Amino acid sequence: MEIASSPAQPVEVTLAKSLTVNPRDVLTRYGCQGCHQVQGAGGTLGPSLDNVISEKGRAFFLRKVKEPQFNNSSSAMPQMPITDDELEALAEFLSSI
Fold first, then answer.
1. Which residue from 34, 12, 39, 23 is spatially nearest to 89, judged by alpha carbons?
2. What's the CATH fold of domain 23-96?
3. pTM of the full predicted structure?
């Protein structure tokens, strides 16, 4: 067997996400509708999420989910261990309703 004298050149590969994130599963997994309404279903402790992106903006929504007390230190919203992919899927969904 002959070993090449120079290292192999890296090959660039684009990988598709192996799992598609279902935003409705995200809502269920983190119990969002325990406090928030989405399309008329859910709790009323927190604001409805139906228009949150159009009213507050995408950046606000993303930060609020990651850092719930950033704009209100007495917010009852807990910090969730949501992944970036889950958060993006949820933001896309909420932007579409």
1. 23
2. Cytochrome Bc1 Complex; Chain D, domain 2 (1.10.760)
3. 0.77
